[in-house]
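Hi support team,

I'm filing this because I wasn't sure whether my run with adenosine monophosphate finished correctly. The job status page said complete, but I'd like someone to confirm that the output block is well-formed before I use it downstream. Pasting the exact inputs I used:
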Amino acid sequence: MSIGIDLGTTNSLCAHLTAEGARLIPNALGDVLTPSVVGIDLDGTVLVGRAAREFQVLHPERCASTFKRQMGSDWKIKLADRELDAVELSSLVLRSLKADAEAHLKDNVLDAVITVPAYFNELQRQATMRAGKLAGLNVKRILNEPTAAAIAYGVHESDEDKVVVIYDLGGGTFDVSVVERFEGTLEIRASAGEIFLGGEDFTSTLAARILESQGMVFEHAELEHPLLVSRLCRECELAKRQLSRGEDAVVRIPALTGDLPDGGPTTTIRREDFEKWTDHILTRTDSPLRRALGDAKLKREDVNEIILVGGATRMRAVRERVARYFGKEPKCTLNPDEVVALGAAIQGGLISDHSSLQDLVITDIAPFTLGVEISHEFGGNCRPGYFLPIINRNTTIPVSRINRVATIYPNQPEMLIKLYQGENRRVEENLYLGEFLVRGIPRGPAGQVVVIRFTYDLNGVLEVEATVVESRLKVRHVVTRYAKSLSEAEIARAVDEMQSLKLHARDETTNRFVLRWAERLYRELPLRERDLLEQLIFLFEEAMELKDVAAIESNRDILHAFLSQYGDGYENRDNQDAADE
Ligand code: AMP
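And here is everything the job wrote out:
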């Protein structure tokens, strides 16, 4: 059984392909969105999703979120007494999604297609693959998110050829891709984006403005009063969503302890002001948009359709800006949170050769220029540090390209091939991907030729082969930061190590979530309502203590109904405008 997974910065989703098309898979709470938040509970078990997000408000030191931004880097975080990196945290989210899919489909789930932003580099793609492996998944394909969205929108099924722009503003990343449907094929012509630009920036800018009005600086407050900042960010998140529907929103300002006392201070934010304060963030989407169109050699008038993807495209300012730029209204008929997972499920079906999808041909592109370091000669002096591109950015993949380099001094016995990706002339400004040594170059004058072949496959994995022309000697190198941990035994060890972290029992998810939600709300409620809540929590805890199944269920339902009056603040139910237009 194969699933498609949208491993998002803010939320993750999974879907599978049925005879009726792609369908989302609900988690243990019945939701299709699982917040990409991981926490280590007080008993050492791992919380994932909404329970972790609730837990994070009161225990930020035991929780991690937005770690997708750190994929492929050396970043680590200490939660309770355990250090975890972004790959390990992502693997916990994937493990939880896998368990949900298995419970829903009543079958083992092994194969998965996982999506990544088109702008993800080699290391980030490799990191995503590794997270899948740690979660016990066989990652069939790493798929670009905009490609997945285009598939979900059925761009390939259209009768006419057309050019579509996929504008994807998620929680933490921005991607824009130009996709062309041409004679039955779907071709990604160009992609550009930014990995540090998304909806969270709008929330934190709003929080920073409010802190500033209280005489505080965001960065200092985050260190000195973490509870205040995490609570304020939550308030700002709610306000931001409110402003996608209305003209103003009220933000409650927490005390330094993070509490929201009765009758505490509030501030009203007008949409007009919010848009003014965050306009500089939106302006940053212009340059990737121009770059993608430029690389595809198209003008904005050539674009037939614009598809909006990502929760942050619900903001009116985003839609208005896109409509102004292209002179036509963008399309958002599918829920912008769900399209990527649906597309991934369809792609999963395509890989396992699902009969209804045999006609679909999808091509993809290399998002960056890939090449090697070379030296240039200036008046007899050799200067290293220059970049020789081998595969240019936005080349359709899979692709295999060659270029030639040569020895620079007589009898040079070996050559160090250093690999980089990026768009700069000098290698130090590009991303270093790895290196390997070519030994045994036959003796002779300078200028012995070595042919370098770069092969970039559909998963964005780069294989480099160097051939010494004279001796026909070949050296091969696969680019992965984790190359040394890719042996079966080492993967198994890493998987075992991650298994030592136990996810909380799936059938307890609802209990944990409701309890965490209740505890968080307890701190926020006015005193009168607090007393009632305290009684309801007590009855629920007592039933759990006594392991009385019927009492657990009835008390949980009562508590849940009480909590629901206040909402958990993240719903987009009344915000389904995207889907309705
Ligand atoms: P994604 O990564 O696609 O799940 O996008 C999540 C981002 O969308 C987060 O930054 C959310 O704050 C943002 N978002 C979700 N719903 C809304 C809304 N109604 N208005 C504004 N932003 C939203």
